[in-house]
Amino acid sequence: MAFDWSGVLSGHPLHWLLQGLAVTIAVTLVAGAIATVVAVLLTALRLSPLAPVRLATRAVVSLIRNTPLLIQLMVWYFVGFARLPQAIKDVMTRDHPWATLPGQVSLAGPEFVAAAWGVGLFIGVFLGEELQAGLNAVAPGQREAAASQGFGAWDTLVAILLPQALRNAYEPVVGQYLNLMKLTAIACSIGLAELTYQARQVESFNSHAFEAFAAATLLYLGLGLVLERALRAVRRA
Amino acid sequence: MGLDFTVILKNWDYLLWGRTPQGEVGGLLLTVLMALAAGFLSLALGIAMALACWMGPRPLRRALIAMADLVRSVPLVLVIFWIYFLVPALFRTQIPGALSVIVALAWFSSGAVLHTTLAGLEALPRGHREAGLASGLSEGQVFTSILLPQALRNLVPSYVALFASMIKDTSLAFILNVPELTMTASQVNTREQIYPAEIFLTTGAVYFVLCAGLAWAAQGLAHRRPLGAAR
Questions:
Q1: Closest Cα partner for B6 from B180, B199, B181?
Q2: Whole-prediction pTM value?
Q3: Among A112, A150, A163, B33, which has the minimal tally of Cβ within 10 Å of its Cβ?
Q4: pLDDT digits (tens, 9 = 90+) for B205-216
């Protein structure tokens, strides 16, 4: 088998792959932000003094962890979107030139929103578990000292405990963000035109399956390296 | 929001085993079969690689770990496509989608098995190997009859957890139109049109029972005292 790159690195196929890369980067960034917020919220809810809140948090975490991401994406896409109020659906499906990525992918469209929210929530739960593990390794005196200095519960968590938890769990946390980037590929099955979707499109367009998947693979590997570098740079800063 | 689960009662047999009576295994049955096949393959492959890493020269160890890590830094969906398109090109025969998914899952997960198994081996006290060698066993005998059995028993909970995530990953067979649980659910959804909530929530519940059950079992197993631990 010989590689023939001309079928992939020119014309439509090249264009599609680059569009797919842009969508993968965009959905990774938005889902990453959602995952971060979800993880911090879950960690806070777990520390709630109210037992029912802690129980409900554990139930949600267990539901998300123990079902496939693909099923969750289908629920958000087919069920969640359909049950939104008509006014919101209208806004989402309208054209927004300012929020449209190349290749007609709307940042407000149901595919992008379901993918970003679904992947963000999924990884947010796993990220929350890593933070929790990091938190468990923080000396109890830290919280007591913060309380004695007059810090409230939220301030203690965000300013004192989480930074230390993050330092303890840095490697697994980086791993989860990399995982998030890779999992966005599953969004091709709800029709989001990201990198994997576009590689398939090239394959059905001119049957250059290998070249298309090789190009996508290299782009994912490169994206992973950049993301890892960036996250490590954040740590040093 | 009103839910009407009669659609599930009408299609439960299709969701459970697809067109198995017509000779094409499908539904939850196919999901479980694929997970079991990929689970056994990845376990065998992962442990074999761990053996090679443990006994072989350093460069081999580094190469095996690098290869396992490389596969895991690519989306699993892409690995599945790779197998699906690569095998026919190399061997000039088409392979069924389900088999592509099994091979891709096994390959992808064998890296996790390798890392887990190595960690389990490294967690055993050094004295065990030394005692074995001192009793006249060879390095290979020490590995297969002293270290591996202890490590494997300690690792059962980790393997069970990996298997639970394998069950979830079989849902990706959807992208090759393999008629496993997620695909059959999606077919029922397309046929019935207006019950996506009932269909996908029920499907999710089936996965949940399987995976949460396994996670629960793994936790129970993990509470046993590990072999080789200091008393």
A1: B199
A2: 0.92
A3: A150
A4: 999 999 999 989
In what helix (H) or strand (E) does residue B24 lie, and over which residues does it extend? strand B24-25
Domain assignment present for residue A2? The answer is: no
pLDDT tens digit sequence for A77-86? 999 988 888 9
Q: How far apart are CA B221 and CA B231, in angstroms?
A: 19
Q: Which of A68, A78, A217 lies closest to B182 in CB terms?
A: A68
Helix axes A209-236, B76-91, angle to 10 degrees: 150
B198 CB neighbour count, 10 Å cutoff: 20
Q: Can you name the CATH fold of B30-176?
A: MetI-like fold (1.10.3720)
CATH number of the domain encompassing residue A32? 1.10.3720.10
Token pair 């520390």 is found at A47
What 3-state class would DSSP assign to A96? Answer: coil
Overall domain count for chain A:
1
Enclosing domain of residue A67: 9-236
Token match 């064998």: residue? B110
Mutation for A interface: B73, B91, B172, B192, most A CBs within 10 A:
B73
Chain B residue with Cα closest to A77: B196
ipTM confidence: 0.90
- Per CB-CB distance under 8 Å, the chain A contacts of B74 are 182, 217, 220-221
**Encoded tokens for B83:** 């197998």
